[in-house]
Write a structure and sequence with these properties.
The chain has strands spanning about 5, 10-15, 20-25, 35-40, 45-50, 60, 70-75, 80-85, 90-100, 115, 120-124. The chain has about 120 residues and is mainly β.
């Protein structure tokens, strides 16, 4: 069992930056591929970014490429999402998730554990 707790959300102006953090319980963090998803009001939860167990490969949804960076620190059981050049359309609840799937888990069903989410609001 893995418990995930996100932090770092908030209100930011368009063009600004935020860094989300997600800390996992347990001693097996490095055995999970980690991902970030987001869900805007009235919309389905969608993939944002993922990182492999060792952190050597990353995957991004097209609209965030070049603006968002996912990283992890296995010694701290933490995954991060650095978000730059934020746009109003980035407004959503952001969820961190852990997957036992192989490389490149970009679908929600491929993830086994989820955090409670953190709200990101970008004002235009």
């Amino acid at each position: 069992q893995v418990q995930l707790v996100e932090s770092g959300g908030g209100l930011v102006q368009a063009g600004g930056s935020l860094r989300l953090s997600c800390t996992a319980s347990g001693r097996t963090f490095s055995s999970y591929e980690m991902g970030w998803f987001r869900q805007a009001p009235g919309k389905e939860r969608v993939f944002v970014a993922a990182i492999t167990r060792s952190g050597t490969r990353t995957y991004y949804e097209d609209s965030v490429k070049g603006r968002f960076t996912i990283s992890r620190d296995n010694a701290k059981n933490t995954v991060y999402l650095q978000m730059n050049k934020l746009k109003s359309e980035d407004t959503a609840v952001y969820y961190c998730a852990a997957s036992r799937y192989g490389l490149g888990a970009v679908r929600a069903y491929q993830y086994d554990y989820w955090g409670q989410g953190t709200q990101v609001t970008v004002s235009s």
